[in-house]
Amino acid sequence: MAEINVRGLHFGYHPDQEILKGINLHFKEKSTAIIGQNGAGKTTLVKLFKGLLKPVKGDVLINATNTKEITAAKLANQIGLVFQNPNDQIFKSNVIDEVKYGPLMIGFTEKEASIQADLALEAVGLKGLEQVNPYDLSLYERKMISIASILAMDMPIVIFDEPTMGQDYQGKERIKAIINRLRQEGKLVLSIIHDMDFAAEVFERIIVMKEGQILLDGESREVFAEVELLKEAYLEQPHVTRIGRELGAEQVFLNERELIDWLKIQHATLQ
Question: Which pTM value belongs to this model?
Answer without folding.
Answer: 0.92
